[in-house]
Design brief:
alpha+beta; Beta-galactosidase, Chain A, domain 5; 2 domains; five-stranded mixed beta sheet; 13 helices; 39% helix; elongated
Length: 541
């Protein structure tokens, strides 16, 4: 009896162990997080057998069934790809293939930190995110973990170009390949997006690539209030600014589309269509503006190429890049009217900067050049004012003699001016001609990143902002006052008194102007004073 019981126990144990081994061979090892998602979705436990084995299985802990992974869950780990490209440093996430950081090592913000052109909150669509008209597919594109070709790229003189590829093979059948091609010391990145979603052709998917609101960077400046910052489109030779309050529904820009961008006074990012794009777009998400490109789609698949420019709004760089990127620079409504003068002035400044290595001295040399160009007119103007001073006694006699006959008075005064070869408005002509130059230079210094953070000497550490100690505005006012004292007194005494108050008015006005502009005006006054002194006190003619 005991032997039979022992034999039954051994046989039962053997059956239990053998059945477990058989299950292990048929079912295989339990799935892990690293196994293919599709395998996890299709695998399930075999049905339970009847008979004695059922009683054995009921005594053990049952294995939980494996269910398909929900479409909004994305197993895997986020990987950040570091790209050092000289002028720009990129951090790209394999989750959605978006840009997490885009730093410009050459530039600092007011806190001394490196400029980062990306300032997107976590709850908003990331920079360079893909989007479709299907929310479920959008979740996959923006949240699934792509397989990167590398996790680190370092470019230098010996490695001028390198490509990053991000590949997604999703269990839904969605296949995506995203590529970034980086170039050393270049703000321009070549990009492409390939999506194969033939299995989803019934959904009629349409794709977009977006730049979020943080792609212009948040840069504080005392002068930014007159500069448009935000979504900007250049299409059909027109620069179109889109204030957030004017964006309601998605706007499409077709025709000759050059770029869509986010930008501020000094920095900007732009998407430039190449192949497989059909429109630029501006939209709003969670009260934040976005720009992007609408991609062409065939059977819910797309194959598009485009460029990303993300960097500074330097005139020379933008002109070199082409694609009408130079139109990203905005000199303001008034300054744009004199853009034909702004650009040459900037080029001259850049030339002198190449010689001196200092934009302060470049401004001084530019001032001398401008003064020399206008010197013949100025000389003629001062001679005219000197002549007007000589005829002033005769002017008063004519005015007294003909105070009741204004027509006769004007005729006699005209004859007097003709006889002595003087022009009463001749003194104003050089100033009037210099006004466009002054406006152009004002906007060149005010809006150009070339002067951002450019030091001069002493306390002037940034020529694009106001003098912190008001030294140059006061010096400008003083030189303006001295210039007026040297100018011959002609005309109405009341007018002369008013003119004497102008240096005070201009001093307070120039307090808020960029110090580079105040230096220009001060040096110009000094040169004018020298010329006045020579004409009035040295020259014999």
């Amino acid at each position: 009896m005991e032997n039979r019981l022992l034999l039954a126990f051994v046989l039962s144990l053997a059956v239990f162990v053998g059945w477990g081994y058989f299950l292990a061979q048929v079912q295989g090892p339990l799935p892990t997080e690293e196994q293919d998602v599709k395998t996890r979705e299709t695998r399930s436990l075999p049905p339970q057998s009847t008979g004695s084995t059922n009683s054995v299985a009921s005594q053990s802990q049952p294995l939980p069934p494996v269910t398909p992974t929900p479409i909004n869950q994305f197993p895997g780990k986020e990987v950040l790809i570091q790209v050092s490209a000289g002028k720009a440093h990129f951090i790209i996430s394999n989750r959605g293939g978006i840009l997490k950081q885009l730093q410009l090592p050459r530039f600092k913000n007011d806190s001394g930190e490196t400029i980062d052109l990306i300032d997107n909150p976590d709850n908003l669509t990331g920079a360079l995110a893909l989007k479709t008209n299907d929310p479920e597919v959008t979740k996959i594109l923006q949240n699934a973990h792509y397989e990167p070709s590398t996790t680190s790229i370092v470019l230098d003189e010996n490695n001028l170009e390198e490509r990053l590829t991000l590949i997604l093979n999703h269990s839904s059948g969605l296949q995506v390949t995203r590529t970034y091609t980086f170039h050393f010391n270049d703000y321009l990145v070549e990009m492409s997006t390939q999506v194969n979603a033939a299995s989803m052709s019934s959904r009629n998917l349409q794709y977009q690539i977006l730049l979020g609101p943080g792609m212009g960077g948040k840069i504080s400046s005392q002068t930014d209030y007159i500069v448009f910052s935000g979504a900007t489109v250049f299409a059909n030779n027109e620069r179109i600014e889109n204030p957030p309050e004017d964006i309601h529904d998605t706007s499409y820009f077709k025709g000759d589309l050059k770029w869509v961008s986010f930008q501020n006074k000094y920095f900007g990012s732009a998407l430039i269509p190449q192949q497989g794009t059909k429109a630029g777009i501006v939209l709003k998400e969670k009260d934040q503006a976005f720009v992007g490109l609408e991609l062409e789609s065939v059977q819910s698949s797309t194959n598009a190429e485009y460029l990303l420019y993300a960097g500074t709004k330097e005139l020379e760089i933008l002109e070199t890049q082409g694609h009408d990127l130079v139109r990203m620079i905005d000199y303001g409504w008034f300054g744009n009217k004199f853009a034909f003068l702004v650009k040459p002035l900037l080029k001259v400044l850049a030339f002198f900067y190449g010689l001196t290595g200092n934009y302060g001295w470049s401004i001084i040399f530019l001032t001398i050049i401008i003064k020399l160009l206008f010197s013949p007119l100025t000389h003629k103007s001062f001679k005219s004012m000197k002549g007007m001073q000589k005829v002033q006694p005769y002017v008063k006699i004519i005015q007294e003699r003909n105070k009741d006959d204004r027509q006769k008075m004007n005729a006699e005064m005209l004859e007097l001016y003709k006889k002595h070869k003087v022009n009463p408005v001749g003194g104003c002509l050089p100033m009037l001609l210099q006004i466009p130059v002054f406006i152009a230079l004002y906007h060149a210094l005010f809006f150009s990143i070339e002067l951002r953070g450019a030091p001069f000497i002493g306390w002037i550490t940034d020529l694009s902002v106001a003098d912190p100690y008001y030294v140059y505005p006061v010096l400008m006012g003083a030189t303006m006052f001295l210039q007026q004292r040297l100018t011959p007194s002609v005309g109405d005494p009341m007018q002369q008194k008013i003119m004497m108050f102008l240096p005070i008015v201009f001093t307070f006005l120039f307090i808020s102007f960029p110090s580079g502009l105040v230096i220009y005006w001060t040096v110009n006054n000094m040169l004018t004073i020298s010329q006045q002194y020579y004409i009035y006190h040295v020259a014999k003619d």
